[in-house]
Structure formats: C-alpha cells, structure tokens
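seq as requested:
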Amino acid sequence: MSAPNGERFDVVIVGAGVAGALMADTLAAAGKHVLLLEAGADRSLDIGGYQPYVDQYLRAPSGVPNAPYPPNPNAPSANVLDIGNPSTSSYLVQQGNLPFLSDYTRELGGTTLHWQGACPRMVPNDFQLHSVYGQGVDWPIDYAELEPYYEKAEGALGVAADVEDQRILGMTFSDGYEFPMHKMPQSLVDQFFMRTIDGMTVTLDGHDYPVRPISLPQARNSTPNPAYKDKDGRGYKPVSYVGDGDRGLRCQGNSACTPLCPVQAKYNARKTLLKARATAGDRLSIVSQAVASKLLIDSNSKRIEGVRYRTYSDPKKPSPAGEFTARGRIYVIAANAIETARLLLVSGAANRSDQVGRNLMDHPYMYSWGLAPEPVYPYRGPDTTSGLETLRDGGFRAKHASFRMSIANWGWSGSPGADVDQFVAGGLFGRALRDKLHDTCTRHVRFGIMVEQLPDPSNRITINPAYVDAFGIPRPVATYDIAPYSLDGARAAREVAARVFERAGVQDCTEYKARPGFQLVGRDGRTFNLMGAGHIVGTHRMGRTAEDSVVNSSLQTWDHPNLFLAGAGAMVTIGTSNPTLTTAALTLRAAEQVLREL
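struct tokens:
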C-alpha cells in the first residue's frame, strides 16, 4: 500500500468505502489499472486489520458509531460525541440553526464499518417527488432505470430479503428475480406486532393506509437462497470474516451490529476490496494514509490533470510524511458527501452551478418506546429485522414528510443499565431487583422513526480558511436546519406510533426532554428528541442540466469530462430509505459510463 512513483493509471479513485470499492472492483475486473486512495490508516485486509476494531470497541466507554475506530488526527472525521452548535473546535465546524447530528468514518472500508446494514430500495415516487406531490425536485432517472442496478447491488452486498415481502409502494422486480439470501428471521418483537396490529390502518390527510410489519432487507449473512443466480448463473456464497473463511457465514445475533459486527456477518466494503485485490492482482493499487488535498485542473480543457495527496506516517499523531500527485485518465471521487464537497470546494472544481456543498440532507431520527403487555425478549441482534414500511409513500407527502418506522430488537435506549440505576435508587436489591428487571426489560419495545428531509440549498457544507486540519486543508463547515415539512412528518409519525402502541396494548412511555446526543426540536407546541441517522446525502446532486446540478445521471461532472463523483452526495432526494443500497446501484451504473469513456 505504498505510494506510486509517477505511475499513470486508467482511473484514480479517492475513497475506499462502498462506492470506491465497488467502482474499483468493477473497473479492475474489466482489465483497467486502478489506483485507490484512502485517507484512513493503513490496515491490512485480513484478521489483523479488523480485529483491532473489535478490541477497541470492547474497551470503549460508549457504543457510539465511531467507538471502534481510534481517533486519527491526520484523517479526522465528524464524531457524534463532539457535536455542538455553534462549534469550531470539533473537526466538523457547526454554524447552523441546528447542529448536523450525523458522523462518518475515514477508514479502509469507509462508513460501512459502522453502518446498520439496512438495504431497502427507494420507492418509485421518491424519484418523482415534485411531479407527483409538488415537493422537492425530480431525479433525472426513474426507478425503472435503476432497478437492474439495484439487483446488481443486492448481489454485490449480499442482501437478505424475500421478494414477495418487498412488493409494496410500486416497487417492482425483474421476472424470476430472487435476493441472494432469504430474509433474516423476524424476531419475537416483530412477531408480537405482526400478531397484535394485524389488519390495522391509520388515517393521514384524510386517507387510510395499512400499517403492517414487513421484513427489512439487509446486507447480512442469512440463509443463502438456492433460487438466486448471478449474471453468470452462479448461486450466492456468503462472504465470511475477512481473512477467516470459517467465521461470519451466518449472523450470530450479536448485539453490536451498529457500530460493528464482531464476526463480519454484516457486509463492509473491505470484503469487496479483498475480492478486487484477489481477482485484479497488480491492476489494483491501494494506497492508505493518503489524504487528497486538491484536484489539479487544466485551465484550457477543464480536464482533471491529477489528485494531489499528502501522506502521514503515524495515525496516532500528526505526522506529515510527503506529498504526491496521482495521475490517470479518469478520476472518481468516492468519499462521503461531506468530504467530497470539501475536496471540490478546496479545489474550486465542478461548481459552475453553485450547487457543490448544497442540499445537505439526513434523516431526522427519533424514538418512541413503551412496555408490551407480555414478554417479547428484546436485547439481541440484529438491531432491527422488520419495520412499518407502508407509510413511506402516500398522498400525505404533498403536505408533510413520509417516514419509516423500524421495530427495534434492542429495547430501550440506555437500558438495561438505566433501569438498574432507577430500581436501586428506589430501594430494590437482590431478588426483588432481579424480578423487577426481568418483568420490565423483557417487555421493552421501541420504534426508530426515520423522517424524510427535502433538499434545501441553505443546508450546506462550505469551507473557511480560518478552520484547517493537521495538513492545513480547510475543514468542512456545516450549516443545517430542519424545515416544517419534516417536523410535520415527525409529528404525524409520533401520532402513528402512539396509535400502534394503543392497538397492540403497549403502555406508551415516550417522553421527549433534553438528552445528551439528541436535539430537542419544537413544532406547533410539540417537541421531539431528534438525532442524525448517519445518512449523509445530497451535496453534489445529479440533474438534467449544468445549471442546477453538479453531475449528470451517470455521475459525470458537467464541468470536467473526466471527473466522476460517486457516493450518496449525488442523490437528489433522500426519501425514507437508508442510502447505501442506492449509492451502490448508482455507482455500478456510473462504472459503465467510466468504461465507455475509457
């Protein structure tokens, strides 16, 4: 993983997360010579490169997303423990009405090292939100155009789901299509709600909608589906723990899926990188500890001439080691939406439309929790196996945001430790304490509610030379707020959750108040505890013209014909789906255009 010495590549990719890994794998498999630059620490693609994450997590005082990943002053990233507003001391400078509440990981494998693993597709109306509901903007492509790439992405990530469960809200599948693996077994918590709210409907904006638990597609090793066949007619073989073929072939129900799966039964981009390296050989060069600092632009042709990057020797302390320039025919920036925007802004690149950094989105996320009338036995993994998916689309979107409600398998946030504190403070000890804990904690239920957010040009990432990192590169500055459209969706979602609890006989214990890690947000006399979902979207969106977007539908920049921007930043709207699967599908589609350009 050493720096190349003046070598010229077919493609230079910045970022070794899911987008960079899939792009590198696709291009190298097609015989192209690819250089992959990763800002994170130089870690091997074997047990020795992953086990330290597990060890770090076991020592961490909290289970926040970045807990398993040692701080790296040379390649810092946003961290939920540092989030404040306003704030200039943390890596992500905050200056908006609300803090941007999500973080990411700059490591070999990217944020798939701490993602949830959820892989729902976007629904068809997400791509035509303005045409159908008069909100947001339309994509330059529709669901039908992306459908075959969704199938490729589900094969690449190893998604577990059953097609019949997913035929909702207009989602379609090609004839005979099967997911690589059968859906994850639905938990006892899922089964409780499947039984108690069967046939339930709710009314939103004067129309009735069904409410029913549906299994959640996720990139997690379940039981391989023998009916699945890839493009070469082969079945699916689960990908194991990187470097150990006997571990991680099936989900073990660990309760640490987020931030990391101890046995790697959940997909992470290191698996794709390992496959790419094995099949491509010397056609793929991976250079870690390489922080991209600037894109070099030819003043006449506007083509990218190189990526300047800086290396460091020790990920534990600031340790500049050298500066290099990577050169290729095509360049792909595949960092997350914040880091891609930062690099473009530092370089003065791709911003004829003034859209770089704008339209920053996330899913405002909140909980609703209660006590079931009978034991449902939570506190096992995965963290969610089903959700109330049927309210992701409907006519109500003309007035307020849609939402997804995941059924949590992990009980109440902060429990059972918080329950022990409460019961001991109330004078319970010994057998009485154990009985109280058993009676209470076995009945904990919780919904995780993910609310749609519309693109807003004032929600954005900018740079300011007053705030720089260890290399003197400007840090990202976030300006963020949540509009009434989303807050009204949050209110509707909370009301639905209360009705579902009532129908199921659940004692609603939801109480919103000031809590660490949450933002208390008010709307029309109602308050909500909102946090980020870790779904960072929208800062270099695609479009039909160079005047209102940064890239075309193939993720090729309008301003620089040999520059592509992969990653969730290209997404036009966020809908209610976790963005990783859509990011993967868009990347695989863009890879075809890169090959055509080459």
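Residues 484-504 form the longest helix (21 residues).
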